[in-house]
Write a structure and sequence with these properties.
124 residues; alpha+beta; VC0802-like; 6-stranded antiparallel beta sheet; 3 helices
Length: 124
C-alpha cells in the first residue's frame, strides 16, 4: 500500500528516483481530434497542445517517481534550478502522482545524472 503523497521538500527530493523513458517525445499543436495515445493534452486560448511519442521527437521524458503532493512546495524549483545551472531546458508536467520533466533529447543522460545526484544527496 502506498504511503501517500510527500509534501516536504527534503522528502520529495530524496524520493525522486528519476526514471528515463526510452521514447522520444514531441509537443504538437493539434487541429481536429487529439491523438488517443497522447501523454498529455494542454488546452490554451491559442489552441490544443498534445505531448506525443514521436520517433523524431526533440524531447526525453524523465519521470520523478516520488508521489509528490500537488501542494508540495519547492520540487519544481529545485529540479529546474539544477538543470538550468547546467544549461538544460526543462518543461514540467505534473500528474496526480508524479512530475514529468521533458528535457532536450541530446541532454537526457546529463539531466538524469543531475537529478539522480540531487536525490542521492537529499537521501543522505
Amino acid at each position: 500500500m502506498s504511503a501517500g503523497p510527500v509534501s516536504d521538500l527534503a522528502g520529495m527530493l530524496a524520493g525522486m528516483a528519476p526514471v528515463l523513458d526510452a521514447r522520444r517525445w514531441e509537443f504538437a499543436l493539434i487541429t481536429g481530434d487529439p491523438p488517443a495515445d497522447a501523454f498529455a493534452l494542454i488546452r490554451e486560448d491559442e489552441g490544443l497542445t498534445a505531448i506525443v511519442a514521436d520517433a523524431d521527437g526533440a524531447f526525453a521524458r524523465i519521470a520523478l517517481m516520488v508521489h509528490s503532493a500537488l501542494d508540495g512546495v519547492g520540487l519544481t524549483a529545485a529540479v529546474a534550478t539544477a538543470l538550468a545551472a547546467a544549461g538544460i531546458a526543462c518543461n514540467v508536467v505534473a500528474g496526480f502522482h508524479h512530475d514529468h520533466l521533458f528535457v532536450p533529447w541530446e541532454r537526457r543522460g546529463e539531466a538524469l545524472a543531475i537529478l539522480s545526484d540531487i536525490s542521492a544527496r537529499a537521501a543522505g
